[in-house]
Design brief:
By secondary structure, the chain is of the alpha+beta class. It is built from 4 helices and 9 strands, in the order E-H-E-E-H-E-E-H-H-E-E-E-E.
Length: 186
Amino acid sequence: MPRVFVAADIHRKGELENIQKNLISCLKLEHIHLKLVKPENFHFTLIFFGEINDSLLDKIVTKISEIEFQSFRINYGPIGAFPDIKRAKVIWIGLDKETKHAFSQMYDIVISKLKELDLKLENEMEKEIIPHITLFRARKVPLCLDLQQVQSDNTIDDVIDTISVKKSLMTPHGPIYENIISVKGK
């Protein structure tokens, strides 16, 4: 069964790939210790469902297809890590402060539409939203990163004009994402 999630799609994937490469170079990281996200897979995850049956998927697709939202500009911001920079397992790029607000509004629209399905999304709604695009993951051992030296002026802007329900098929070469439905903003 494929894993399913709702994502906000982006356009400036080449520029993010350059940030990904520069970050690895600046931090002197070895590719053998990293699992890079392929540029075609860069996105903002809004809700992750995991493996779900076709009946639930159909209901999610229906609700997402009903969403109306305004497209908006974003500015990429800080580089960060989960769970933190001393034990980094996921390294990501986020959004600047002004953009986070617009992103949160779009997230609220998606959550409110999906709440109609009674999917028990309370945990999703309670956690702090940290909009981010994963650039790479640590393979086995968490990394201790000095991100101060790489907090560059990422003056890349982009636009979020599409929300998609995606499925992720796991392969030996990494996940392959396929859009099940995409909704364009106004």
